[in-house]
Write a structure and sequence with these properties.
Elements: H1 3-15, H2 34-55, E1 63-67, H3 73-82, E2 87-92, E3 104-108, E4 121-127, H4 136-146, E5 147-159, E6 165-167, H5 171-190, H6 201-208, E7 211-218, E8 221-222, H7 227-238, H8 240-245, H9 250-261, E9 266-268, E10 271-278
Parallel strand pairs: 1-2, 1-4, 2-3, 4-5
Antiparallel strand pairs: 5-10, 6-9, 7-10, 8-9
């Protein structure tokens, strides 16, 4: 990660209350770390997301739902893509980070509890949201009903259980990185997430009634300047309290950061599954 980014992140850690949210989503949008979280996610994954969305044929006149829009980068892309004549509804439980844009409606909305209109959307997209929801299978059924017959759903979800170290500067940094990954998995699961759900979400889509299901795994190499690894490094700050609570030591935390900043470090990414499906005609 560039030095300027490291400095900003460290300042946030020193000045913010580094406490875990009380249950629920681990990456709270009220956190002072949220802006950097959204920046890293967009840099790491927007190209995969938008390339796949383009293959649905989304274009002028389409009505779209972006569920759990986060920083809004995908919702803004959809708003540009569906103009003229289309619409994009971007929802989040804490939507303050989504900027205004023509063709984009932003709404505070809980995808688990708040109603959605039936048969209203040509396309529904959600990235790295349902994995955090214990009610994810019920949410899939709600998203199915929100689509028009023949409408498209696209999800991107992780399997974080695969992300091996390929080359580390030394045993200390290798062990620190592996300990960080293990503690992160425990922290996410304790908050109700299933961080390996990407591996099985296609089966849950089928059970919910979707058809034309196409799961595509994405795996990339990680090095110090990779956006995906910068996101992991950011998580050592964003999730610091949770990581320590779930067994990571201060020394392991520092070793993990040293690993991810070292120019000789190499790892495989987690597997990101991009899954497309359709509501039956």
């Amino acid at each position: 990660m560039p030095a300027a980014t490291r400095s900003t992140t460290a300042t946030v850690e020193e000045t913010a209350a580094a406490t875990a949210p009380e249950g629920g989503y681990a990456f709270d949008n009220d956190s002072p770390h949220a802006t950097e979280q959204h920046r890293c996610l967009a840099a790491a994954h927007d190209r995969i997301t938008t390339d796949a969305l383009a293959r649905t044929g989304v274009g002028p006149g389409w009505d779209c739902l972006e569920a759990g829009a986060g920083g809004g980068s995908v919702a803004r892309w959809l708003a540009r893509r569906t103009a003229p004549g289309g619409s994009v509804l971007a929802t989040d439980v804490k939507p303050a980070h989504i900027p205004a844009q023509a063709g984009l409606e932003v709404r505070r909305h809980d995808i688990v509890r708040d109603p959605l209109p039936d048969g209203a959307f040509d396309l529904v997209h959600s990235r790295l949201v349902l994995t955090h929801l214990p009610e994810r299978r019920a949410v899939l059924r709600r998203l199915l009903r929100a689509l028009r017959p023949g409408g498209h759903l696209q999800l991107e979800e992780f399997d974080i259980d695969y992300a091996p170290v390929l080359l580390a500067p030394d045993e200390r940094t290798r062990a620190g990185y592996e300990a960080f990954r293990a503690a992160k998995g425990r922290a996410l699961r304790a908050a109700g997430a299933d961080p390996s759900w990407g591996r099985t979400c296609a089966e849950d889509l089928r059970a919910a009634g979707f058809t034309a299901i196409d799961p595509v795994p994405h795996l990339v190499p990680w090095r110090a300047d990779s956006p995906g690894l910068q996101l992991q490094l950011h998580h050592t700050y964003h999730l610091r309290a949770q990581l320590l609570e779930h067994g990571l030591t201060e020394e392991e935390l520092l070793a993990a950061r040293d690993a991810m900043r070292h120019p000789g470090f190499r790892a495989a990414s987690c597997v990101l599954y991009c899954v497309q499906a359709r509501r039956p005609e």
